[in-house]
Write a structure and sequence with these properties.
74 residues, mainly alpha
Amino acid sequence: MSTQSVADRNNRLDALLKASKFWADKRRTDINHRVDSSKKILKGRTGSERLARSNVQAASALVVDSIDDFLVAT
């Protein structure tokens, strides 16, 4: 390889590195904005969060009661 072709290759690699870092930063920023937006949406749904927690607690109590009934019956 000649000195000129090595220099051209190095320049292209530098440009690729710069473009890759720019793309990654832009993509990271976009993803962070989406995460923030999703968190705000979830935070606004506090009623559904309480309802889900209530359903989980009720289901857990039912399972515990069912296991107790099964163990006592045997």
